[in-house]
Design brief:
The complex is a heterodimer of chains A (116) and B (113). Chain A is mainly β and 116 residues long. Chain A is built from no helices and eleven strands. In chain A, strands 2, 4, 5, 6, 9, 10 and 11 form a seven-stranded mixed sheet that branches. A four-stranded antiparallel sheet of chain A has the order 1-3-8-7, with no helix packed on it. The radius of gyration of chain A is 14 Å and the shape is globular. Chain B has 113 residues and is an all-beta fold. Classes of the chains: A mainly beta (116), B mainly beta (113). At the A-B interface, strand 4, strand 5, strand 9 and strand 10 of A face strand 5, strand 6, strand 10 and strand 11 of B.
């Protein structure tokens, strides 16, 4: 089945450590996104990528880094510079940037990151 | 800048009744899109319905319909014949350039048997 796979589902990190969240899609989508969700709140955009080997900062990129070496994969690294990393992280993908308005984004199941 | 406001943190509805979830937005773009997503307790985001700013008709998808009032900048979601499985968080979102989304704070809907 086509979809987006995020792993792991739960992740625990010690303060000062970098961790990488995985996101893989087999929908042949060009665009991929990372969102952060804090309890009781909506999603906020961290990074996005419209094409392989290119990505842009979103609204809350500080303390995060990404790569886009393959079309299918868009891993997110939460660095030690992120002061409050405990949150729910959602990866999404959508059709190419030239697709008409209205193309919905498909989301993964999310990764819940906790700093211990 | 775009902004989405959902003023109802939580809503109760009786099973089989209809419910309206409010969403207002602010944008200076002449062309935009509005989405509603459902987030069950498991966490994934499920697409429900889409409305384009130039669409003449209000969008409908099964039991979901969107009450789009462009002049008032509102895009309320109407769920008819509520079911227990409709209990979830509901998010209104606006599409911006590059298919990125700006989300509202969400409304938690609880369906009572």
């Amino acid at each position: 089945d086509g979809g987006i796979t995020q792993s792991p589902k739960y992740l625990f990190r010690k303060e000062g450590q970098n961790v990488t969240l995985s996101c893989e899609q087999n929908l042949n989508h060009d665009a991929m996104y990372w969102y952060r969700q804090d309890p009781g709140q909506g999603l906020r955009l961290i990074y996005y990528s419209q094409i392989v080997n290119d990505f842009q900062k979103g609204d809350i990129a500080e303390g995060y880094s990404v790569s886009r070496e393959k079309k299918e994969s868009f891993p997110l690294t939460v660095t030690s510079a992120q002061k409050n990393p405990t949150a729910f992280y959602l990866c999404a993908s959508s059709m190419d940037r030239d697709s008409p308005t209205g193309t919905e984004a498909f989301f993964g199941q999310g990764t819940r990151l906790t700093v211990v | 800048a775009q902004k989405i406001t959902q003023t109802q943190p939580g809503m109760f509805v009786q099973e089989k009744e209809a419910v309206t979830l409010d969403c207002t937005y602010d944008t200076s773009d002449p062309s935009y899109g509005l989405f509603w997503y459902k987030q069950p307790s498991s966490g994934e985001m499920i697409f429900l319905i889409y409305q384009g700013s130039y669409d003449q008709q209000n969008a409908t998808e099964g039991r979901y319909s969107l009450n789009f009032q462009k002049a008032r900048k509102s895009a309320n979601l109407v769920i008819s014949a509520s079911q227990l499985g409709d209990s979830a968080m509901y998010f209104c979102a606006m599409q911006r350039a590059g298919n990125m989304l700006t989300f509202g704070g969400g409304t938690r809907l609880m369906v009572k048997p």
